[in-house]
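Q: what does this look like with magnesium ion bound?
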Amino acid sequence: MYYVFLLGPAGSGKSLLTAVLHDWLEEHGMNAITLNLDPAADWLPYTPDVDIRNYITVEDVMKRYNLGPNGALVTAVDLSINYIKELIDEIDELKPNYVIVDTPGQLEVFAFRKAGPIMIDALARGFKTAVLFLLEAYMLLKPSTLIPLSILSLATALSHRKPQITIITKSDLLSKEETAHILRLLENPLDFLTTLKGYEYFIVSNTPSDEILTIVETAIRNTLENAVLISALIGQGIDELYAGLQRILAGGEDFYTEEPSEIL
Ligand SMILES: Nc1nc2c(ncn2[C@@H]2O[C@H](COP(=O)(O)OP(=O)(O)O)[C@@H](O)[C@H]2O)c(=O)[nH]1
Ligand SMILES: [Mg+2]
């Protein structure tokens, strides 16, 4: 059994990609299930096979603890830990090859509080696990969004400590020129960095800070190396995403090549 967690900022496309990746795996002869960990989801583009909302919802928490929507979401994610055993029992009964895990809309609630990494570790239980970190393509076109999002991606990886692939989403919204720009960026992130040196972003107290530059370089390299450009809407790049997943999960082998005992 393999676990694939989808993390990323609100609106980056986690829920739609959960649906599309699930269907792609099924169409290619694999048995995949979806697990929804977002207790605040009111509509999802798929019907979850296993769903945290059967145990806890943000609405219940708002009423029970007299909280507003933000406080209730944070509390609901923290309280989700109490239902890990029930979720695992449901998953194990379904005996899938792949568990595709959709996470709460707000990345920070899941990735940076204790509950998120605890849930990831407890669910994965030593099964091979990959994290897909989703970023919207058009946000990588400008340094002012590329730089903070790369740092966010690195911080998330340091929080869950599982192998992570960057998935650049919504490629269908890019013009030809923008697509070419992103592909050049992926081929050579360091070229891009060279053009940024001395750029206003690194100027602290009027002098470029080498320390900041080093952090930015590390974050951008980690984020853009092995990134895959996809569109869940038009089904672009899903084959490449699967190849990236297999490199982590099965050392590049298709799962059919494994012994059944290793799959389940
Ligand atoms: N154009 C386009 N829109 C997308 C794509 N993936 C997701 N969306 C839209 O972006 C919005 C947010 O997607 P969603 O999956 O709910 O994001 P989440 O908050 O990360 O779960 C929805 O309106 C989706 O239909 C894509 O590949 N292309
Ligand atoms: Mg969602």
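The mean pLDDT is 90. The chain is about 50% helix and 15% strand.
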